[in-house]
Specification:
Length: about 475
Protein backbone atom coordinates (compact mmCIF):
# COMPACT_ATOMS: atom_id res chain seq x y z
CA UNK A 1 0.00 0.00 0.00
CA UNK A 2 1.38 3.44 -0.88
CA UNK A 3 2.35 5.94 1.78
CA UNK A 4 -0.71 7.53 3.34
CA UNK A 5 -0.85 11.24 2.52
CA UNK A 6 -3.44 13.99 2.87
CA UNK A 7 -4.79 15.68 -0.25
CA UNK A 8 -4.16 19.17 1.18
CA UNK A 9 -1.12 20.06 3.30
CA UNK A 10 -3.14 22.71 5.13
CA UNK A 11 -5.41 19.99 6.54
CA UNK A 12 -2.70 18.17 8.56
CA UNK A 13 -3.93 19.20 12.00
CA UNK A 14 -7.53 18.47 11.08
CA UNK A 15 -6.56 15.05 9.75
CA UNK A 16 -4.82 14.15 13.02
CA UNK A 17 -8.00 14.94 14.92
CA UNK A 18 -10.02 12.95 12.42
CA UNK A 19 -7.72 9.97 12.79
CA UNK A 20 -8.04 10.09 16.55
CA UNK A 21 -11.76 10.74 16.93
CA UNK A 22 -13.85 10.58 13.76
CA UNK A 23 -12.36 7.48 12.14
CA UNK A 24 -13.71 4.87 14.61
CA UNK A 25 -17.27 5.83 13.63
CA UNK A 26 -16.67 4.87 10.01
CA UNK A 27 -17.51 1.39 8.84
CA UNK A 28 -14.55 -0.91 8.36
CA UNK A 29 -13.35 -0.73 4.77
CA UNK A 30 -15.13 2.55 3.94
CA UNK A 31 -12.49 4.78 2.32
CA UNK A 32 -11.72 8.31 3.47
CA UNK A 33 -11.70 11.31 1.13
CA UNK A 34 -8.14 10.61 0.02
CA UNK A 35 -8.92 6.97 -0.73
CA UNK A 36 -7.18 5.54 2.34
CA UNK A 37 -8.81 3.11 4.78
CA UNK A 38 -9.83 4.19 8.28
CA UNK A 39 -8.10 2.93 11.41
CA UNK A 40 -9.43 -0.41 12.57
CA UNK A 41 -7.62 -1.72 15.68
CA UNK A 42 -7.64 -5.51 15.87
CA UNK A 43 -7.11 -5.60 19.60
CA UNK A 44 -3.57 -6.36 20.75
CA UNK A 45 -1.02 -3.61 20.28
CA UNK A 46 2.16 -4.40 18.35
CA UNK A 47 5.35 -2.36 18.46
CA UNK A 48 6.91 -1.22 15.18
CA UNK A 49 10.26 0.12 14.07
CA UNK A 50 9.87 2.82 11.41
CA UNK A 51 12.44 4.33 9.05
CA UNK A 52 12.25 7.95 7.92
CA UNK A 53 14.22 10.09 5.50
CA UNK A 54 17.22 11.93 6.90
CA UNK A 55 16.23 15.29 8.33
CA UNK A 56 12.63 14.33 9.16
CA UNK A 57 11.52 16.34 12.18
CA UNK A 58 9.98 14.78 15.26
CA UNK A 59 6.68 16.54 14.51
CA UNK A 60 6.55 15.27 10.94
CA UNK A 61 7.47 11.72 11.99
CA UNK A 62 4.85 11.67 14.73
CA UNK A 63 2.21 13.00 12.35
CA UNK A 64 2.95 10.33 9.77
CA UNK A 65 2.83 7.53 12.33
CA UNK A 66 -0.45 8.89 13.72
CA UNK A 67 -2.03 9.06 10.28
CA UNK A 68 -0.96 5.47 9.69
CA UNK A 69 -3.00 4.53 12.78
CA UNK A 70 -0.11 4.33 15.23
CA UNK A 71 0.98 6.01 18.45
CA UNK A 72 4.51 7.38 18.74
CA UNK A 73 6.66 5.78 21.45
CA UNK A 74 9.96 7.43 20.56
CA UNK A 75 11.65 9.23 17.70
CA UNK A 76 15.42 9.38 17.28
CA UNK A 77 15.91 12.39 15.04
CA UNK A 78 19.68 11.98 14.79
CA UNK A 79 19.16 8.78 12.80
CA UNK A 80 15.57 9.30 11.60
CA UNK A 81 14.20 6.15 13.22
CA UNK A 82 10.89 5.97 15.07
CA UNK A 83 9.17 3.51 17.36
CA UNK A 84 5.39 3.24 17.36
CA UNK A 85 2.60 1.01 18.62
CA UNK A 86 -0.52 0.12 16.71
CA UNK A 87 -3.43 -2.26 17.01
CA UNK A 88 -4.22 -1.92 13.33
CA UNK A 89 -2.76 -4.81 11.31
CA UNK A 90 -2.45 -2.49 8.29
CA UNK A 91 -0.03 -0.09 10.00
CA UNK A 92 3.04 -1.41 8.18
CA UNK A 93 1.21 -1.49 4.85
CA UNK A 94 0.18 2.15 5.22
CA UNK A 95 3.79 3.23 5.67
CA UNK A 96 5.28 0.59 3.38
CA UNK A 97 6.80 -2.76 4.32
CA UNK A 98 10.25 -1.41 3.41
CA UNK A 99 9.85 1.22 6.14
CA UNK A 100 7.95 -0.39 9.02
CA UNK A 101 8.43 -3.74 10.73
CA UNK A 102 7.25 -5.44 13.92
CA UNK A 103 9.27 -8.25 15.49
CA UNK A 104 6.13 -9.17 17.42
CA UNK A 105 4.61 -10.25 14.12
CA UNK A 106 6.85 -13.32 14.08
CA UNK A 107 7.78 -15.76 16.80
CA UNK A 108 11.18 -14.94 18.30
CA UNK A 109 13.38 -15.72 21.29
CA UNK A 110 16.89 -17.07 21.40
CA UNK A 111 18.25 -16.87 24.95
CA UNK A 112 19.92 -20.26 24.78
CA UNK A 113 21.71 -19.50 21.49
CA UNK A 114 23.95 -16.91 23.09
CA UNK A 115 24.55 -18.59 26.44
CA UNK A 116 22.75 -21.13 28.61
CA UNK A 117 20.33 -19.57 31.08
CA UNK A 118 21.12 -20.05 34.75
CA UNK A 119 18.36 -19.16 37.17
CA UNK A 120 20.27 -19.05 40.42
CA UNK A 121 23.75 -18.48 41.72
CA UNK A 122 25.65 -20.07 44.54
CA UNK A 123 28.78 -19.57 46.54
CA UNK A 124 29.95 -17.44 49.43
CA UNK A 125 30.42 -13.86 48.20
CA UNK A 126 33.10 -13.32 50.86
CA UNK A 127 35.25 -16.20 49.59
CA UNK A 128 38.09 -15.46 47.18
CA UNK A 129 37.23 -17.25 43.90
CA UNK A 130 39.92 -15.63 41.75
CA UNK A 131 41.89 -18.90 41.66
CA UNK A 132 39.13 -20.36 39.48
CA UNK A 133 39.41 -17.59 36.89
CA UNK A 134 41.60 -19.32 34.30
CA UNK A 135 40.24 -16.84 31.77
CA UNK A 136 41.82 -13.83 33.48
CA UNK A 137 45.23 -15.50 33.49
CA UNK A 138 44.87 -16.28 29.79
CA UNK A 139 44.53 -12.59 28.86
CA UNK A 140 46.99 -11.47 31.59
CA UNK A 141 44.35 -9.42 33.42
CA UNK A 142 45.80 -10.39 36.80
CA UNK A 143 49.21 -9.00 35.79
CA UNK A 144 47.57 -5.86 34.36
CA UNK A 145 45.98 -5.04 37.71
CA UNK A 146 49.40 -4.48 39.21
CA UNK A 147 49.67 -1.54 36.81
CA UNK A 148 46.07 -0.31 36.52
CA UNK A 149 42.54 -1.44 37.31
CA UNK A 150 40.98 1.24 35.11
CA UNK A 151 39.65 4.73 35.70
CA UNK A 152 36.34 5.80 37.26
CA UNK A 153 36.16 8.34 34.46
CA UNK A 154 35.52 5.49 32.00
CA UNK A 155 31.88 4.44 31.64
CA UNK A 156 31.09 1.04 30.11
CA UNK A 157 27.63 0.26 28.80
CA UNK A 158 26.34 -3.28 29.34
CA UNK A 159 23.52 -3.68 26.81
CA UNK A 160 21.95 -6.84 28.16
CA UNK A 161 19.25 -8.18 30.51
CA UNK A 162 20.09 -5.86 33.42
CA UNK A 163 22.74 -5.84 36.15
CA UNK A 164 22.16 -6.77 39.78
CA UNK A 165 23.54 -3.62 41.41
CA UNK A 166 23.17 -5.18 44.88
CA UNK A 167 25.74 -7.89 44.20
CA UNK A 168 28.80 -7.24 46.45
CA UNK A 169 31.15 -7.52 43.47
CA UNK A 170 29.20 -4.96 41.43
CA UNK A 171 27.56 -2.51 43.81
CA UNK A 172 30.38 0.02 43.51
CA UNK A 173 30.69 -0.34 39.75
CA UNK A 174 27.09 0.27 38.61
CA UNK A 175 26.22 3.92 37.97
CA UNK A 176 22.44 4.27 38.41
CA UNK A 177 22.46 7.79 36.94
CA UNK A 178 23.59 6.42 33.56
CA UNK A 179 21.47 3.26 33.49
CA UNK A 180 18.16 2.77 31.67
CA UNK A 181 15.67 0.20 30.50
CA UNK A 182 15.01 0.11 26.74
CA UNK A 183 12.53 -2.74 26.33
CA UNK A 184 9.78 -0.43 25.07
CA UNK A 185 12.06 1.27 22.57
CA UNK A 186 12.22 4.40 24.72
CA UNK A 187 14.75 4.86 27.51
CA UNK A 188 13.39 4.62 31.04
CA UNK A 189 15.99 5.56 33.71
CA UNK A 190 13.97 4.26 36.67
CA UNK A 191 15.83 1.49 38.59
CA UNK A 192 13.00 -0.99 38.05
CA UNK A 193 13.44 -0.62 34.28
CA UNK A 194 17.14 -1.52 34.14
CA UNK A 195 17.38 -4.07 36.97
CA UNK A 196 17.31 -7.77 36.04
CA UNK A 197 14.18 -9.77 36.74
CA UNK A 198 14.56 -13.45 35.78
CA UNK A 199 17.67 -13.41 33.57
CA UNK A 200 21.18 -13.52 35.12
CA UNK A 201 22.88 -13.01 31.73
CA UNK A 202 23.62 -9.29 32.11
CA UNK A 203 24.95 -9.70 35.65
CA UNK A 204 27.31 -12.46 34.46
CA UNK A 205 28.61 -10.26 31.64
CA UNK A 206 29.04 -7.30 34.02
CA UNK A 207 31.16 -9.32 36.44
CA UNK A 208 33.61 -10.30 33.70
CA UNK A 209 34.09 -6.63 32.86
CA UNK A 210 34.30 -4.95 36.25
CA UNK A 211 33.80 -7.16 39.31
CA UNK A 212 35.62 -5.56 42.26
CA UNK A 213 39.24 -6.33 43.05
CA UNK A 214 38.65 -6.62 46.79
CA UNK A 215 39.99 -10.09 47.54
CA UNK A 216 36.47 -11.51 47.66
CA UNK A 217 34.45 -13.31 45.01
CA UNK A 218 35.86 -12.74 41.53
CA UNK A 219 37.73 -9.89 39.87
CA UNK A 220 36.83 -8.39 36.49
CA UNK A 221 39.15 -7.28 33.69
CA UNK A 222 38.75 -3.59 34.57
CA UNK A 223 37.50 -3.42 38.18
CA UNK A 224 38.13 0.31 38.47
CA UNK A 225 35.69 1.51 35.78
CA UNK A 226 31.97 2.31 36.03
CA UNK A 227 29.15 0.32 34.46
CA UNK A 228 25.82 1.43 33.03
CA UNK A 229 23.05 -1.17 32.98
CA UNK A 230 21.16 -0.75 29.69
CA UNK A 231 18.40 -3.34 29.47
CA UNK A 232 17.71 -4.52 25.93
CA UNK A 233 17.10 -8.25 26.53
CA UNK A 234 13.71 -9.27 27.90
CA UNK A 235 12.98 -12.15 30.27
CA UNK A 236 12.38 -14.55 27.37
CA UNK A 237 15.81 -13.76 25.94
CA UNK A 238 14.29 -11.83 23.04
CA UNK A 239 16.29 -8.87 21.73
CA UNK A 240 13.97 -6.66 19.73
CA UNK A 241 15.59 -4.21 17.30
CA UNK A 242 13.80 -1.18 18.76
CA UNK A 243 15.33 -2.01 22.16
CA UNK A 244 18.79 -2.19 20.63
CA UNK A 245 18.32 1.12 18.80
CA UNK A 246 17.25 2.69 22.09
CA UNK A 247 20.24 1.16 23.91
CA UNK A 248 22.78 2.33 21.36
CA UNK A 249 21.31 5.83 21.32
CA UNK A 250 21.38 5.92 25.14
CA UNK A 251 25.05 4.88 25.10
CA UNK A 252 25.83 7.66 22.63
CA UNK A 253 23.97 10.29 24.65
CA UNK A 254 25.56 9.34 27.97
CA UNK A 255 29.24 9.43 27.18
CA UNK A 256 30.05 5.72 27.22
CA UNK A 257 33.54 4.84 26.03
CA UNK A 258 32.63 1.26 25.14
CA UNK A 259 29.43 -0.77 24.99
CA UNK A 260 29.19 -4.55 25.31
CA UNK A 261 26.64 -6.35 23.12
CA UNK A 262 26.47 -10.05 24.01
CA UNK A 263 23.48 -10.93 21.84
CA UNK A 264 22.19 -10.94 18.30
CA UNK A 265 19.18 -8.94 17.21
CA UNK A 266 15.94 -10.85 16.73
CA UNK A 267 14.07 -12.21 14.91
CA UNK A 268 16.82 -13.74 12.70
CA UNK A 269 20.29 -15.02 13.63
CA UNK A 270 21.48 -13.29 10.47
CA UNK A 271 19.56 -10.27 9.22
CA UNK A 272 19.56 -9.60 5.48
CA UNK A 273 19.61 -6.11 4.02
CA UNK A 274 16.60 -6.71 1.79
CA UNK A 275 12.81 -6.80 1.90
CA UNK A 276 11.21 -6.22 5.30
CA UNK A 277 14.46 -7.28 6.98
CA UNK A 278 15.97 -4.07 5.62
CA UNK A 279 14.05 -2.12 8.27
CA UNK A 280 15.80 -3.97 11.10
CA UNK A 281 19.19 -3.95 9.39
CA UNK A 282 19.10 -0.26 8.53
CA UNK A 283 17.77 0.94 11.88
CA UNK A 284 20.41 -0.94 13.87
CA UNK A 285 23.13 0.12 11.43
CA UNK A 286 22.16 3.77 11.79
CA UNK A 287 22.15 3.52 15.59
CA UNK A 288 25.51 1.74 15.70
CA UNK A 289 27.08 4.26 13.34
CA UNK A 290 25.71 7.13 15.43
CA UNK A 291 27.13 5.63 18.62
CA UNK A 292 30.51 5.26 16.92
CA UNK A 293 30.40 8.88 15.79
CA UNK A 294 29.79 9.92 19.39
CA UNK A 295 32.84 8.05 20.67
CA UNK A 296 31.33 4.70 21.69
CA UNK A 297 33.30 1.61 20.68
CA UNK A 298 30.85 -1.26 20.29
CA UNK A 299 32.03 -4.78 21.14
CA UNK A 300 29.78 -7.69 20.14
CA UNK A 301 29.61 -11.47 20.50
CA UNK A 302 30.00 -13.39 17.25
CA UNK A 303 27.20 -15.78 18.37
CA UNK A 304 27.22 -19.49 19.11
CA UNK A 305 26.00 -20.83 15.77
CA UNK A 306 29.34 -22.41 14.66
CA UNK A 307 28.74 -20.52 11.42
CA UNK A 308 31.12 -18.96 8.90
CA UNK A 309 29.85 -15.38 9.07
CA UNK A 310 31.97 -14.29 6.11
CA UNK A 311 30.21 -16.65 3.69
CA UNK A 312 26.57 -17.09 4.68
CA UNK A 313 24.87 -19.35 2.17
CA UNK A 314 22.10 -21.87 1.72
CA UNK A 315 18.59 -21.77 3.06
CA UNK A 316 17.45 -21.52 6.63
CA UNK A 317 14.05 -21.54 8.25
CA UNK A 318 13.13 -18.26 9.92
CA UNK A 319 11.22 -17.99 13.22
CA UNK A 320 7.99 -17.70 11.23
CA UNK A 321 8.66 -21.02 9.49
CA UNK A 322 9.39 -19.41 6.12
CA UNK A 323 12.53 -20.40 4.25
CA UNK A 324 15.12 -17.69 3.71
CA UNK A 325 18.10 -17.75 1.35
CA UNK A 326 21.30 -16.45 2.92
CA UNK A 327 23.87 -14.50 0.93
CA UNK A 328 26.46 -11.76 1.28
CA UNK A 329 23.76 -9.26 2.26
CA UNK A 330 23.05 -11.16 5.49
CA UNK A 331 24.92 -10.32 8.69
CA UNK A 332 24.65 -11.02 12.38
CA UNK A 333 23.64 -7.81 14.16
CA UNK A 334 25.41 -5.95 15.60
CA UNK A 335 28.65 -7.99 15.33
CA UNK A 336 28.64 -7.97 11.53
CA UNK A 337 28.42 -4.20 11.17
CA UNK A 338 31.31 -1.97 10.17
CA UNK A 339 33.02 -0.37 13.14
CA UNK A 340 31.82 -3.01 15.62
CA UNK A 341 34.43 -5.28 17.24
CA UNK A 342 33.30 -8.87 16.59
CA UNK A 343 34.59 -11.43 19.11
CA UNK A 344 35.00 -15.20 18.75
CA UNK A 345 35.55 -17.51 21.71
CA UNK A 346 38.38 -19.85 22.70
CA UNK A 347 38.45 -22.58 25.32
CA UNK A 348 41.06 -23.10 28.05
CA UNK A 349 43.38 -24.67 25.45
CA UNK A 350 43.40 -21.48 23.37
CA UNK A 351 41.62 -23.15 20.43
CA UNK A 352 38.38 -21.79 18.94
CA UNK A 353 35.46 -23.18 20.91
CA UNK A 354 33.33 -25.57 18.89
CA UNK A 355 30.21 -23.41 19.22
CA UNK A 356 31.87 -20.13 18.27
CA UNK A 357 31.03 -18.44 14.97
CA UNK A 358 33.98 -17.33 12.84
CA UNK A 359 34.69 -15.62 9.53
CA UNK A 360 37.61 -13.99 7.73
CA UNK A 361 37.18 -10.23 7.80
CA UNK A 362 34.35 -10.47 10.31
CA UNK A 363 36.10 -11.62 13.50
CA UNK A 364 38.37 -8.90 14.87
CA UNK A 365 39.76 -10.54 18.02
CA UNK A 366 39.18 -13.54 20.26
CA UNK A 367 38.87 -14.04 24.03
CA UNK A 368 38.05 -16.76 26.57
CA UNK A 369 34.51 -18.11 26.33
CA UNK A 370 35.07 -21.59 27.72
CA UNK A 371 34.33 -25.01 26.28
CA UNK A 372 31.40 -27.02 27.61
CA UNK A 373 32.91 -30.34 26.58
CA UNK A 374 35.88 -29.80 28.91
CA UNK A 375 33.71 -28.67 31.81
CA UNK A 376 35.56 -25.36 31.97
CA UNK A 377 33.33 -22.38 31.44
CA UNK A 378 33.75 -18.79 32.66
CA UNK A 379 33.05 -18.07 36.33
CA UNK A 380 31.30 -14.77 36.98
CA UNK A 381 28.61 -13.04 39.00
CA UNK A 382 24.90 -13.83 38.89
CA UNK A 383 22.18 -12.71 41.29
CA UNK A 384 22.71 -14.65 44.50
CA UNK A 385 26.31 -15.59 43.89
CA UNK A 386 28.34 -17.01 41.00
CA UNK A 387 27.96 -19.39 38.07
CA UNK A 388 30.01 -20.81 35.22
CA UNK A 389 28.69 -20.15 31.73
CA UNK A 390 30.20 -20.79 28.27
CA UNK A 391 29.63 -18.73 25.14
CA UNK A 392 30.77 -15.88 22.94
CA UNK A 393 28.65 -13.82 25.35
CA UNK A 394 31.44 -14.42 27.86
CA UNK A 395 34.24 -13.75 25.35
CA UNK A 396 32.93 -10.31 24.37
CA UNK A 397 33.06 -8.75 27.88
CA UNK A 398 36.72 -9.80 28.24
CA UNK A 399 37.38 -7.64 25.17
CA UNK A 400 35.18 -4.86 26.50
CA UNK A 401 37.19 -4.89 29.73
CA UNK A 402 40.46 -4.59 27.80
CA UNK A 403 39.03 -1.67 25.81
CA UNK A 404 38.02 -0.04 29.11
CA UNK A 405 41.63 -0.37 30.30
CA UNK A 406 42.84 1.14 27.04
CA UNK A 407 40.39 4.05 27.41
CA UNK A 408 41.68 4.56 30.96
CA UNK A 409 45.32 4.53 29.85
CA UNK A 410 44.64 6.71 26.80
CA UNK A 411 42.02 9.29 27.84
CA UNK A 412 40.55 11.10 24.88
CA UNK A 413 41.46 8.37 22.39
CA UNK A 414 39.03 8.06 19.48
CA UNK A 415 37.12 4.91 18.58
CA UNK A 416 39.53 4.31 15.72
CA UNK A 417 42.58 4.78 17.97
CA UNK A 418 41.19 2.39 20.60
CA UNK A 419 40.45 -0.18 17.92
CA UNK A 420 43.99 0.06 16.58
CA UNK A 421 45.48 -0.23 20.09
CA UNK A 422 43.29 -3.27 20.80
CA UNK A 423 44.18 -5.16 17.62
CA UNK A 424 47.86 -4.20 17.69
CA UNK A 425 48.13 -5.42 21.28
CA UNK A 426 46.47 -8.78 20.59
CA UNK A 427 48.59 -11.96 20.52
CA UNK A 428 48.49 -13.66 17.13
CA UNK A 429 47.20 -17.23 16.98
CA UNK A 430 47.82 -19.35 13.90
CA UNK A 431 45.11 -21.51 12.37
CA UNK A 432 45.08 -24.98 13.97
CA UNK A 433 46.66 -27.68 11.84
CA UNK A 434 43.83 -30.04 12.72
CA UNK A 435 40.37 -28.90 13.84
CA UNK A 436 38.74 -32.28 14.37
CA UNK A 437 37.21 -31.67 17.79
CA UNK A 438 35.37 -34.95 18.17
CA UNK A 439 37.97 -37.23 16.60
CA UNK A 440 35.62 -38.28 13.82
CA UNK A 441 38.22 -37.74 11.12
CA UNK A 442 36.38 -34.72 9.70
CA UNK A 443 37.28 -31.05 10.14
CA UNK A 444 34.60 -29.30 12.18
CA UNK A 445 35.37 -25.94 10.57
CA UNK A 446 37.97 -24.54 8.20
CA UNK A 447 40.27 -21.73 9.29
CA UNK A 448 41.51 -19.36 6.59
CA UNK A 449 44.11 -16.63 6.68
CA UNK A 450 47.49 -16.49 8.37
CA UNK A 451 48.71 -16.08 11.96
CA UNK A 452 48.42 -12.27 12.23
CA UNK A 453 44.85 -12.31 10.88
CA UNK A 454 42.56 -15.26 10.25
CA UNK A 455 38.95 -16.38 10.30
CA UNK A 456 39.06 -18.08 13.72
CA UNK A 457 40.86 -15.49 15.82
CA UNK A 458 41.00 -12.26 13.82
CA UNK A 459 44.04 -10.29 15.02
CA UNK A 460 44.45 -12.68 17.95
CA UNK A 461 43.86 -13.06 21.69
CA UNK A 462 43.33 -9.78 23.53
CA UNK A 463 45.97 -8.82 26.10
CA UNK A 464 45.04 -6.80 29.19
CA UNK A 465 48.64 -6.25 30.25
CA UNK A 466 49.51 -4.77 26.86
CA UNK A 467 46.58 -2.39 27.31
CA UNK A 468 48.08 -0.80 30.43
CA UNK A 469 51.74 -0.95 29.41
CA UNK A 470 53.13 2.28 27.90
Amino acid sequence: MPLLRLTRAAAVSVAIVAAAFAVPSLADGEPLEDGSLPCHPAGAQSRYLVLFAEGTTAEAASTEMTLACGSTVAYYGEIAVGVATSGDPRFADRLGRARAFSTEAVEAGHAGKIAPRVTTGGGDTTEDRSGEQWDMGMIRADAAHAVSTGSRDVLVGVLDSGIDATHPDLERAVDPTRSAGCLSGKADPSPAAWAPTTSPHGTHVAGIIAAAADGKGITGVAPGVRLASVKVVDDDGTVRPESVVCGLMWAAANGMAVANNSYFVDPWPLTCDRGEEHVVYEAVRRAADHATSRGVLNVAAATNESRDLASPSGQTAGPDGQWRTLDGNCRVLPAGLRGVIAVSAVGPDGVKAGYSAYGLGVIDVTAPGGEQSTGKCVLSTVPGGYAQVCGTSMAAPHVTGVVALLASTHPGASVQQLTRLLTNGATSIACPADYDLDGAGVQDAYCSGYAPFNSFYGHGLVDALAAVTP
